[in-house]
Amino acid sequence: MRTAILAAAEELFAERGFPGTSTKAIAERAEVSEALVFTNFGTKAALFEAAVMDRYEAFVEAFMAEVAKGELEQYTTAFDLVHSFVEAFAKFLTENRSIVLSYLDYYRLAADDSSGPAANFALALVDLEQLLTRRGPELGLRVTDTRLAVRAIISMVLGLVLHEDLMFSGVRRPARARMLREITDLVVSGLVER
After folding, report:
1. Which residue intervals are the DNA-binding region (predicted)?
2. CB 180: neighbour CB atoms within 10 A?
3. What pLDDT is stored for residue 194 in this prediction?
4. Which one of 63, 159, 169, 174 has the fewest CB atoms closer than 10 angstroms to its CB?
5. Hey, which CATH number is domain 1-42, 1.10.10.10, 1.10.10.60, 2.40.50.840, 3.30.1600.10?
6. Going by C-beta distance under 8 Å and a sequence separation of 6 or more, which residues neighbour residue 109?
7. CATH number of the structural domain 50-191
8. Rama region for 42: left / alpha / beta (φ>0; ψ in -120 to 50; rest)
9. Nearest 10 degrees: CA dihedral of 108, 111, 114, 120?
10. Is pLDDT of 31 > 90?
């Protein structure tokens, strides 16, 4: 039942956003009672976070697991390390664009709650910060504030993928691969010692 509720919630939040989705609609789509939705998740906000954050956290865990498998040796340059994450994150955002936009809308609505969704999103970034701290120096990265560096990378990729149409409206759009290489070049050029 919990799986059915989460699947229904994810679909509806992606289609209608947080404010446009009712727990009643989620229950109907999952073919359960609305009371069961509340029994399992407590609140609509908790259900939203479970439906959305699970996917994001799974992405970060999978990326970190790949790195932890000993495949870290494949990253022989700062560009390789940063670009592998930029590409993976862009792919994740592209495949989950509607749910990510819904999450951003939810975050905007919940901005007064400091224990809300931002805490979950930021928590998953700690592993990426540790990777940059651990592996960066041997690749020539000079990172004085890994929290800021990781969030700058996330922000650039997030902005590009979610607002690509807006940024290239009326002008020739470069290929996605080229845009991601430019982001990587910008990040690495700003972090590599000269």
Report:
1. 22-41
2. 21
3. 47
4. 169
5. 1.10.10.60
6. 18, 19
7. 1.10.357
8. left
9. 0
10. yes
Span 77-106, average pLDDT: 84
The DSSP code for 189 is H
Model confidence, pTM? 0.76
- The tens digit of pLDDT for each residue in 62-87 reads 777 776 665 556 777 888 888 888 88
**Closest C-alpha among 101, 116, 92 to residue 44:** 116
Output the average pLDDT for the chain.
Answer: 82
Q: Which amino acid type is present at position 78?
A: A
Would you call 18 helix, strand, or coil by DSSP? coil
Compute the residue count for the chain: 194
The 3-state DSSP class for residue 83 equals helix
